Amino acid sequence: xxxxxxxxxxxxxxxxxxxxxxxxxxxxxxxxxxxxxxxxxxxxxxxxxxxxxxxxxxxxxxxxxxxxxxxxxxxxxxxxxxxxxxxxxxxxxxxxxxxxxxxxxxxxxxxxxxxxxxxxxxxxxxxxxxxxxxxxxxxxxxxxxxxxxxxxxxxxxxxxxxxxxxxxxxxxxxxxxxxxxxxxxxxxxxxxxxxxxxxxxxxxxxxxxxxxxxxxxxxxxxxxxxxxxxxxxxxxxxxxxxxxx
Length: 245
What we know:
alpha/beta, 2 domains, 13 strands, 6-stranded mixed beta sheet, 22% strand
């Protein structure tokens, strides 16, 4: 199965300079959020492939103008051609917004999916706008990941995790491919096409070799401790600057 994942920035290649052959052979399109609904509608019009999407933190406009011909998979598991796909919306809350959540709120989203996860016997692809905590997320609050997503990866070990939100132009944490235990993580920024049956077998060993370490609980704990220390130091510096003024 050939899957096109898109998000965060409308691909000019697929919109402004669209040619039918660019979607040739694509079996499924998955949006990981923060895209113009007209762009999704455009793709749905020019392909026979289903277009699934989750809401990004900037997608409140979908309430007035949802993308035509597309299906929202927020907080649900769908099965397409035997592949179990779970979608979760939004980002960590850093300002008022419909699709922004505190950690405990995303924990609740996942708890509500418990029976569905048991019924389907797990998942093959996890789709979210935000990354998982300490796995390719940013250090600033707006781009920190959800602990609930990391828990899903650890417990259900899907083959793929598709997310966005962390852009290449403003985060040194950005990488297109990462891994967490048995999961190949794909940052779908703008666009990325992969073959469900073969990408894992070809890319996962390369990513594992490149990273050279495992995301053990001990390692994640050290990362969190370091991040907390850096945040405290930043807060102290900000307080010092305010005091000088």
